[in-house]
Amino acid sequence: MDQPLTFSRIAAADLEAFERQKEKIVTAVTEHIFRDPELQAIPNDREKSRLARECVKIFTENLGATMKHDLPAALVDYLDWLRAFLRHRGFPITFIPRMIAGTRNAAHAFLENANSDEICTALRTLRALELEKSGDTAPSSPRSHSREVLA
Amino acid sequence: MIIQEQRQRFVECLRSGDRRRCFALVREWEQQGLPNDILSHDILIPALVQFGDSWEKNERGVVEEHVASQIVRQILAYKAVMMEPQSMNGRTALVGCAPEEQHDLASLFLANALEEAGWKVVHYGTAAPVHDVAQAVDFYKPDLICLTMKSLASIDSTLQLLEGLRTAHPGIKVMVGGIALASVRSLLAPKVDVFADSLAHGVKAAGELFE
To answer: Which stretches in chain B have pLDDT values below 70?
Structure first.
């Protein structure tokens, strides 16, 4: 990972915009995950679908709270717990990185009247950290990157 | 019987969801003179932690974990009814969850333990809106407010509550338990008198705040 995770550069107005758009972001990220060809085991399984929806909702809540109060270590600690929790339930290791990438794209798409750059930078760093921890450090191919872009 | 064996018997009864056997064990140990703090600290809490860990590892389902929680909840209610505190310390503690926090079992343990230590306890349990907790402080006039929190999402509303309390009631002491992350504690620290690391520590620290 090139740079440490920090939320300190995110402006208050951009955090407020994120808070206002949270519901839209959760919906978009969930759809993004359910459409991902590498995560097809999730929408095809009722219990995994339920858990995925819950994960996206709670992750977005926790992201909003930890960004607002600049608590990156708390968010990383939560993701460490979530990674183990999902592993025990047979989720693909790519689930959390894809969820973070989806959140980054949704933030970029929905924060129309705010600047999403610093939020997206933080999420890019968080995703890189997550890829390191999940052991999936291979760079995204152009094709796999295109799958991360919300329609 | 050594405590590990008692805990193991209790966990086996919890695992089978057998309320009657769990209650019978607690009454049997009560008749043998097992102190409530040992029951909580060395049997009930470790049993719940064991169930929580198993749920996280997908070895047990949500319902099994809830069954265990409900049995312990009823044991704590029984203990609260039967309790006869030896001497009251003349102080009141308002005990409950931080705003938006739904996990209230820790607050139940603390309510019982503080009551046994001589506190008058007002226990409101699971999450209540910031405005309503502030109103409750005006109404019950506690000397100490004890909040339990686990989830990160409750940080913002907890801070809001604590800031309001510090402004309106600067003399009231505040204890927070359940969250151990150093960065979260640092954020809350200016508005908190003490963080409880465990049930026993919480009870001891509450007393020490007024020495």
So the answer is: 1
> pLDDT digit string (tens) for A88-119?
999 999 999 999 999 999 999 998 778 889 99
Those residues whose C-beta lies under 8 Å from the C-beta of residue A76, and which sit 6 or more positions away, are: A5, A126, A129
Whether the pLDDT of residue A151 is over 70: the answer is no
> Chain B partners of A69 at a C-beta cutoff of 8 Å?
155-156, 159, 187
Interior angle at CA A54, CA A49 and CA A57, nearest 5: 125
Render the burial of B71-87: b for 16+ CB within 10 Å, e for the rest.
bbeebbeebbeeeeeee
Average pLDDT over residues A135-149: 41
Residue A144 CA to residue B86 CA, distance in Å, equals: 68
> pTM, whole model, 2 decimals?
0.89
Give the total residue count for chain A.
151
Interface mutation vs chain B, best among A66, A69, A91, most B CBs within 10 Å: A69
Q: How many CB pairs under 8 A join A and B?
A: 43
CA end-to-end distance (rounded Å), chain B: 37
CB-CB contact of A148 with A140 (8 Å): yes
Which one of B56, B153, B187 has the shortest CB-CB distance to A62?
Answer: B153
Q: Pick from A78, A85, A89: which is nearest to B152 by CB?
A: A78
- Provide ipTM, 2 decimals: 0.88
